[in-house]
């Protein structure tokens, strides 16, 4: 029961923390602070394993993990408090103070970042003091007044009440997330300017009609999300500024209104995560609205010996992009729109970068706030400090979507279909091998451009039995996708996607 008192008290503390954070700053919620610090401090292998195991559910998995550790620690604190009064309370306050200190070190810490964790520790400690005071079997000096009442039932009622209170406070905290609500409503009220140069509608024959095949354009709600932000950063467009500085002749500063007034262009670009495994779904294709970064850099006039742009987000993430990829004729964008809408909050609202041909970790900074023109030998970015390559061109890849791996299909006329990509270099063909037969050319849909993935399909007379299907792409430059299998780290997975199908 002392352990139970500890757990219920921790729930009160967590609730107080979330409630305070809801009013002060969502990113300073104790869970966000501890989780964020763990994400940044975790060794590369741990992070890579988390993404490999949990994919886009990695954040939920981390929060569950923190919860489990917290419950264990709280139970222990309860047991200590029952044996040595104040020891558990002190533990709560110390943990809260530690998290408060951690909160101040987070890149997006506001002035009151320390408050939620401190309040959580104090609230939890106070609850523990009260609950242990009414433990049924413990004749504490201050329990004398309740000498007739401290039954097991009474204790359980109070402990249960404390737990419910904790949950209620946490719910209230998430409702109060003032920042998120305000920014979400600003976003909802926005109407984006019309592009000076709209994306041409996809050419006829770009989208194949095959059920189960990834759609040519990925809807925002299905677009994969990968980032280090446990709480989605909330950036109000009215206060958004982009600073371009470093090795430039002239510093440039840009506000939201100035950005909107520029002649915006629309382009369709496939974005992929370097953590995407062969056959994986950390990839999507969207129509982006934005302004070419090239034009902004032209205003700033980078020094001749600069070769990298270090972009920083509102929450302290950084990416190092080759200067060349931002100044050459590809349309690297400072994007504000995704598939006809303002960027969704989780995809970088109000402004992010999108660079055709490069993995997200070296180019696609969301909630972007700062561009520093520099050199690869002078600056390091978030993931390059964690064992990933400095440069990350997206590798030539292809995927089988239909039939679904591991599912059975009926014998007879079937279709094999998928997507292939090598953004910026393009795709010139896809080949398919069934069992150990010859490689056959698949029908390639018309590409939107070299910057997007391409759908493909091949008819198949499926005979009963177990089959293995493999695919490989041929790049725009004639290169065939390598069979050599490599894991995502350090610069992207390679190998052929292969699926097993049972035909009956
Ligand atoms: N601010 C910020 N931007 C970021 C990241 C991040 O962690 N923080 N992750 C990058 C990575 S690794 C990828 S793959 C893309 C994913 O963009 P998406 O979530 O919109 O699909 O965002 C990039 N931009
Ligand atoms: Mo990524």
Salient structural properties:
alpha+beta; Sulfite Oxidase, Chain A, domain 2; 5-stranded antiparallel sheet; 504 residues; 5-stranded mixed sheet; binds the ligand Nc1nc2c(c(=O)[nH]1)N[C@H]1C(S)=C(S)[C@@H](COP(=O)(O)O)O[C@H]1N2; Immunoglobulin-like
Explain what the structure shows:
With 504 residues, this protein is α+β, with helices and mostly antiparallel strands. The protein folds into three domains: 2-176, no CATH class; 220-386, Alpha-Beta Complex (Sulfite Oxidase, Chain A, domain 2); 397-503, Immunoglobulin-like (Sandwich), CATH 2.60.40.650. The protein contains eleven helices and 19 strands. It has helices at 2-24, 30-41, 44-54, 58-83, 87-105, 115-133, 152-176, 178-189, 256-261, 293-300, 323-327; strands at 241-246, 252-255, 265-272, 283-292, 308-313, 318-322, 333-338, 341-342, 352-354, 368-374, 397-402, 408-409, 412-421, 427-434, 440-441, 443-444, 454-462, 465-475, 497-503. The strands form four sheets. It has a five-stranded mixed sheet. Strands 3, 4, 7, 8 and 9 form a five-stranded antiparallel sheet that branches. Strands 12-19-18-14-15 form a five-stranded mixed sheet, with no helix packed on it. A hairpin with a 5-residue loop joins strand 1 (241-246) and strand 2. The model has no long low-confidence stretch (mean pLDDT 93). The site of molybdenum atom has 6 residues, from loops.
């Amino acid at each position: 029961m002392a352990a139970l008192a500890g757990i219920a008290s921790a729930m009160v503390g967590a609730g107080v923390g979330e409630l305070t954070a809801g009013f002060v700053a969502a990113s300073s919620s104790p869970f966000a602070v501890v989780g964020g610090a763990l994400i940044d401090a975790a060794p590369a292998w741990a992070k890579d394993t988390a993404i490999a195991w949990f994919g886009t559910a990695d954040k939920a998995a981390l929060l569950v993990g923190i919860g489990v550790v917290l419950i264990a620690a709280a139970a222990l604190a309860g047991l200590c408090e029952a044996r040595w009064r104040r020891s558990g309370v002190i533990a709560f306050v110390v943990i809260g103070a530690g998290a408060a200190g951690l909160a101040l070190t987070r890149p997006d810490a506001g002035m009151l970042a320390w408050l939620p964790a401190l309040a959580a520790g104090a609230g939890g400690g106070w609850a523990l003091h009260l609950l242990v005071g009414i433990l049924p079997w413990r004749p504490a000096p201050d329990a004398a007044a309740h000498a007739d009442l401290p039954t097991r039932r009474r204790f359980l009622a109070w402990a249960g009440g404390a737990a419910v209170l904790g949950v209620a406070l946490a719910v209230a905290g998430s409702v109060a997330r003032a920042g998120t609500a305000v920014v979400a409503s600003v976003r909802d009220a926005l109407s984006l300017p019309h592009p000076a140069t709209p994306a041409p509608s996809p050419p006829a024959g770009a989208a194949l009609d095959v059920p189960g095949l990834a759609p040519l354009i990925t809807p925002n709600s299905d677009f994969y999300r990968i980032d280090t932000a446990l709480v989605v950063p909330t950036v109000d467009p009215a206060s958004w500024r982009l600073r371009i500085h470093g090795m430039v002749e002239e510093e440039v500063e840009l506000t939201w209104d100035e950005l909107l007034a520029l002649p915006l262009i629309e382009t369709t670009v496939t974005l992929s995560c370097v953590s995407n495994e062969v056959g994986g779904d950390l990839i999507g294709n969207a129509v982006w609205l934005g302004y070419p970064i090239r034009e902004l850099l032209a205003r700033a006039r980078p020094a001749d010996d600069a070769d990298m742009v270090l972009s920083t987000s509102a929450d302290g993430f950084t990416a190092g992009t080759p200067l060349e990829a931002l100044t050459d004729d590809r349309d690297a964008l400072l994007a504000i729109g995704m598939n006809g809408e303002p960027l969704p909050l989780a995809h970088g609202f109000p402004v992010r970068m999108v660079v055709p041909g490069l993995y997200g970790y070296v180019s696609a900074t969301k909630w972007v706030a700062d561009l520093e023109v520099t050199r690869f030998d002078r600056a390091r970015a978030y993931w390059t400090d964690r064992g990933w390559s400095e440069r990350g061109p997206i590798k030539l890849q292809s995927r089988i979507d239909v039939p679904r791996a591991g599912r059975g299909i009926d014998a007879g006329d079937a279709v094999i279909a998928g997507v292939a990509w090598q953004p910026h270099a393009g795709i010139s063909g896809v080949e398919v091998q069934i069992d150990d037969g010859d490689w056959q050319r698949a029908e390639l849909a018309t590409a939107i451009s070299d910057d997007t993935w391409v759908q493909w399909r091949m008819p198949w007379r499926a005979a009963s039995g177990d089959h293995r299907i493999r695919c490989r792409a041929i790049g725009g430059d004639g290169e065939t996708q390598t069979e050599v299998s490599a894991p995502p780290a350090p610069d992207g997975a390679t190998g052929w996607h292969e699926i097993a199908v049972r035909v009956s």
